[in-house]
Amino acid sequence: MLNVRRAKIGDIGHIRDMIQELADFENMSDGPRLSQSDLIRDAGLDGGPEYCEIYVLTKENISTEYIGYAICFKSYSTWNGRCLFLEDIYVRPEHRQQGAGKHLFLAVAARAKELNCSRLDFHVLEWNPARRFYENLGAEDLTVKDKWHFYRLEGDKLTNLVNKYL
User: Fold this and answer.
1) Which residue in 55, 69, 90, 134 is the catalytic one?
2) Which of 21, 86, 132, 143 is in the most buried spot, having the most CB atoms within 10 Å?
3) Is 134 a catalytic residue?
4) What predicted TM-score, i.e. pTM, was given to this entire model?
């Protein structure tokens, strides 16, 4: 039986491992820089402010088997109001093509509806075969449909910009 629930502190080590697995899959093995402590803090599991929601997908047998995770956060659109942004969704390879990813994705979509969000946003790498999965669920590729391009300022570039102009 598959179970999606909010992560607890005891889950974070397993989630951090899966974050690395996702980075390896995306050919970005050096990408993840967050520690377990960072995830606990940012999910508000230490009693502080919550910057993201972390969900874990488990299979309950004699023991708990960690199958996947999702991380999302609230965002806002000046056109549509409340939104939910799905930063990561990951299912371990041996559990793919069995409905586990759909189960997890639908739980996040239900959370968006629970929060009265007008939409659920997420990015998918161009080469990722999961693109078909999302399109089959009704998601639209905004790069194709609306010609949106996503930009980012991070690290030294963000620091240098702020230091230069403020």
Assistant:
1) 134
2) 86
3) yes
4) 0.93
